[in-house]
Each structure stands twice: as C-alpha cells, then as structure tokens.
Specification:
Blueprint (H helix, E strand, L loop, with lengths): L14 E2 L6 E2 L1 H18 L8 E5 L4 H16 L5 E8 L6 H15 L3 E5 H5 L3 H8 L4 H19 L4 E3 L4 H14 L2 H6 L4 E2 L7 E2 L7 H10 L15 H16 L3 H11 L12 E2 L6 E2 L5 H10 L14 H5 L6 H8 L4
Parallel strand pairs: 3-4, 3-6, 4-5, 6-8
Antiparallel strand pairs: 1-2, 7-8, 9-10
Helix pairs in contact: 2-9, 7-10, 7-11
The chain binds iron/sulfur cluster and zinc ion.
Subcellular location: Cytoplasm
GO biological process, one term: tRNA wobble position uridine thiolation
Enzyme class: transferase
Length: 341
Amino acid sequence: MPVVCSSCEKKNAVLKRPKTGLSLCKDCFFWAFEEEVHQTISSARLFTAGETVGIGASGGKDSTVLAHVMKVLNERYSYGLDLMLLSVDEGITGYRDDSLETVKRNQQQYDLPLKIVSYQELYGWTMDAIVKQVGLKNNCTFCGVFRRQALDRAAMMLKVDKICTGHNADDVAETVLMNFLRGDIARLRRCTAITTGSEGAIPRCKPLKYAYEKEIVLYAYFKKLDYFSTECVYSPNAYRGHARAFLKDLESIRPSAIVDIIHSGENLSVKEDVKMPVQGTCMRCGYISSQKLCKACVLLEGLNRGLPKLGIGKHHKLHHKLLAQEPLTEKEEKKLKAVDF
Ligand code: SF4
Ligand code: ZN
C-alpha cells in the first residue's frame, strides 16, 4: 500500500525525510527543504538587497544544490541579489578538470556568470605538482589554505560583496568535533558561526548550515541536478575521516545528533583568559593573517625553497628570516625538508 504524503495528503510519498521522519511527496519535500534554507537565510539576515553574491561552486552536490536553491529563493522571495559562480581549479588531473566541466554546465543551466581561478595562475603550482613534492600526508593543508585565499581573490576580482559556500550541517558538526578533539579553541569558537570574515576579509556564509547531507543528496537526486560525485584522488584527510565516521555512527542511533552537535558548538563559551589570535595583515601579500606572513605565503615559500614542512607545524620564529630573505641554517633546513610520504 503506497503511503500518502503527510503534508499535502494527496500525492503518494516517495521518501521519508531524514530530518523529521515524515513521509513526503517530491514537491512537498522540495518545498520544505527550500523553505528551511530560506528560514536560515532570513533569520540570520545573511544578505541585503542589491548585493553581489558569489557562490563557491565545485561541481559537487552541496554547491550545486546551493546554487540551485539560491537561484530559486532569490526569485521566489525577491532577495534582489546578483548571483554568480566562483570556482577554484586546484590542478588535480582526473578530478578537478572533470568537476569543472560540471560547473560549466551548471553555469549554462542556471544562467549565472562564472569565474574560475587556478592555483597555477595564482601560486605557480598545481596540486599535482605540490603532491609530487609534499606527498599525500599534508597535501590537504596546502590545498585548504590555497583554496580559501583563491576564492577570496576571485571574489575580489569580481567585486563580490559576499561569498556563500555549500557547507552543510554534517560538515559543520564534523568540524565542531574535530576542533574539540584537537583542543583548537580559537577555531571551535569560530566554526559554528553562520557568517565569518568580518575582520577585513570578504564575509562568507553557509546557507545550508542546517541542511543534512542526506537531504541534500535526496534533493539533488529528485531534482535531477547535474553534479559530480567522484572523490578527490588525493583525499587522505584521515582525521576528518575519523570524525566523519564517528558522526555517521552517532547519526544512525540518533538522527538529530548532527544538529545537536552544532547547537552545542554554538552555545559553547570560551573562557575570558583563552588567548585568541589577533588579526593583522600579511606583510608580503596583504591577506588577513595573525602572523607576519599569512599561511599561504609561508606554504608557498616552503614549496619554492624545496622545504615543504615550513608551513606545517609551528615555525613562526623563522618568519622574520623568510621576510628578510635570509638563508636558513643547515639544521633548520634539514628539519623542514623531511616529508613523510
Ligand atoms: Fe584538496 Fe585535499 Fe580536498 Fe583533494 S581532498 S581537493 S587535495 S583539500
Ligand atoms: Zn600572504
């Protein structure tokens, strides 16, 4: 016996919502999902009419759903936003080249302008070349730092007021867990914020912050959205993987675990005497940084000098030497050269 949709009570239900357990028909699910994103956007006042908003687009399910829903809501509720797609080409053969093709199709399908910036043009290195030098253990550190800055640079080129990214509830919960497990209090405090980067950087927000990954997959599937679902060929990210597996276990026992962890993270308060980094700007490239040199400049310097460990771990004491272009001692060099592949 087919189950009737518990919302419209007319059509047959095609799915059981992971978030609420309700059986819904396709249209009622689409409506509920979109309305929840609209709620997130309006209650946090993420955007103001007249703004240009860059959607970080990777071709994956999250950013494809984000682009689709942003377009729908912008029209349905007259947000008055100028939307565009921003993509980063990390230079990963067999992964990013294919996913960028998806983004290019999305550009046509959604009729939005698209800007692609590449690591090669910005840093002179592709991820393929970086992995050759640094191996597969720390590659995501390079990639993550470079991507963050690359997206900002693309946004600046296009005079974008805000960037929105496809981070979903599972990602945020995972990050809370990871920062908690690492004792990274500064990040723990920041990571649940729906908008970040008011300290001089282009603000970034996460309209899908409360959307479950499972529902994003269902939405993309039933809407027949065109997205790319292959994993990055260099994806080790072991620590995040453990946090993810742990979260999935918790979710299978208690589906609200994801949103519960986010709420816990949002309501944590950090003791007054915890030292928080002071934001300044990088003396080399002008990007926001709590040190003399931003992380991207240090990582890049390490790559260019053949000392890949320079940006991994804490070597702040060496920054003045780098800035002054002074040579490092043999001992310092030796320590920074060794890479665990
Ligand atoms: Fe970059 Fe690592 Fe993500 Fe691959 S898995 S795109 S290397 S951050
Ligand atoms: Zn810099």
